[in-house]
Amino acid sequence: MPRQDPGSTIWFTLTIDGESLGYFNGCEGLSSHVEVEQRQEGGNNGFVWQLPTRVSYSNIRLTRPLTPDTAKVAKWISSVQTGIKRPTAQISALRADGSLVARWGLIEVLPVSWQGPSLDPASPAVATEVLEIAHHGFTD
Q: Which Pfam families match (predicted)?
């Protein structure tokens, strides 16, 4: 079995209900948090019960240099104005050769914000965009 290089470049793809929004080179916020309620049992001083109450999910921020796929993101964000439909999404992490590292399914995805590039001739940096999405949990 060939050894995989964990330091290789990773790319991310975002797919909304089967439609690709393109490749991203940054992905932050794939996380969840379980709130825990503590209950003390009468007569038992040896421990405290840790009971899960609710799970919350952080927003996910995807970043990339500006590409023609930006129009797909704008179209998706504009579709929110005509009625909220919360689709299923997938984020896939791919190696430089295109092979799959990991995939996350997301339930009821909603675009939260989009930030376009700063177009300043005094600062000739790479034009980037940031897409932030919210979701209601992970799925297969």
A: Phage_T4_gp19
Is residue 39 in some structural domain?
A: no
**Residues forming a β-bridge with 36:** 52
Collapsing DSSP to helix, strand or coil, 75 comes out as helix
The enclosing domain of 76 has a CATH number of 2.30.110.20
pLDDT in tens, the chain (140 residues): 444 555 558 999 999 999 999 999 999 999 999 999 999 988 888 889 999 999 999 999 999 998 899 999 999 998 888 776 789 999 999 998 889 999 999 999 999 999 988 777 877 778 899 999 999 999 97
Looking at the 3D structure of the chain, how many domains does it have? 1
Decide: 73 and 129 in contact? Cβ < 8 Å. Answer: yes
